Amino acid sequence: MRASTASFIERLSSLQPDTAVHPVADLYDAVAMLAPGPLEPEAIAAVFRFFERHPAADHGIPGPLVSLLETQRGRYERELKASVARAPVPMTLSMVNRILNGEIEEQSFAEWMALLSDVARNAINPSVRQLASEYLEFQESSGD
To answer: CA-CA distance, 139 to 144, in Å (whole number)?
Structure first.
């Protein structure tokens, strides 16, 4: 693992965005630690673990972490699916919705919709179930 990736993961693990004065600025500082280029899988996984640990924190809209991941098209989606299946949170559901809003193949669209549908039916947190339902409804109505 590159030193910049290890430093990023350590910094991200130490952040407490629920009580930070400037949580989004702290995230920009963490992202700035990374070397340019493709992210290592450990960095991608660390971002999703961060979202799962801090589901109600201000991460920005979409924020530096989502912006970072979206530069890694084709490299982060598997981990996003695993995170949503493991512990769906508003930020990762928003990322799924952003993918669905883009140009994607029909089969991929169906897979992401099935994931949202599963969360809408089975998530423990009622607000997460509601959010997944709202994204589903939006996506279904967008096809009209």
So the answer is: 9
pLDDT exceeds cutoff 70 at 98: yes
* Confidence (pTM): 0.93
Rounded CA separation 24/124 (Å): 27
Q: What is the mean pLDDT of the chain?
A: 94
Where in the chain are the domains? 1-75, 85-144
What does the alpha-carbon distance between residue 49 and residue 42 come to, in Å, rounded to a whole number?
10
Query: Which tokens hold the place of 52?
Result: 């799962």
Single out the residue of 56, 95, 67, 64 nearest to residue 79, CA to CA.
Answer: 95
> What local confidence, expressed as pLDDT, does residue 15 receive?
95
Alpha carbon distance 123, 8 (integer Å): 30
Helix 3-14 vs helix 23-32: crossing angle, to nearest 10: 170
